[in-house]
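Justification of computing resources. Each target in the renewal requires a structure prediction run like the one illustrated here; the chain below, 231 residues long, is used simply to show the kind of job we budget for.
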Amino acid sequence: MRYLLWRIMMRLRAPRRDADRYFIVSPYKTATTTVGKALLELGACRREMTFRSHVLTDVRRDLRQLQDTITPQTSARDWIAENTDAALQVLGPVMPRLWRYDAFSDAPFGHGNVHCFILKAVVPKARFIWVDRPLEDWLASVRRWELSRPDVYRHHGQWHDDPDTRRATLTRQRAKHYARFRRMAEEFPHDCLELSVEDLNSWDKLAAFCGLPAPAGAPPARNVTGVDARV
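Resulting structure tokens:
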């Protein structure tokens, strides 16, 4: 009986399918948790999907092949027009789980793990947020984070053995994901928001993007480690 009541409550909390869905696509340690919780506090979203490690396991190979069809020169609108059916076929098995949420701040759908074009194809009302953190500050935060969780980050040893390679890999991945976000923003400017970490010292820009009044103060910082003050 308790489980049945829980299922009913979760179904009532689930956002409508035609609701906006917010994907925070900047990498971890860029205030993504702060923004995800802020969307809930604003009332822009009802449920946040946090880390789910195995959601994409069964579709990962097909998803990777689909993402490989997108080049740096690909138009977002053209790709979506030509590949929506293919994207729905690949992500079909996991769409029931995606529809339960309207904020995505972590893997598998946040942090740029799924290309923006694909998300926009299967979720037409998808909106995207990128939080820009100064590169050196971000790399230092990632180093602290990965070294504190060696069971999660299999490359953590590189920070000791070959830190230059780890820094270069992370920098390259961040640049790739940012380029994807910028291409989406060029063609869907009203569905994309780029924030600096300093912008999170108030609610103004995030609230305006969501079309909601800005509360006083600032979004509470979440998931902070060490000297991180706003992430």
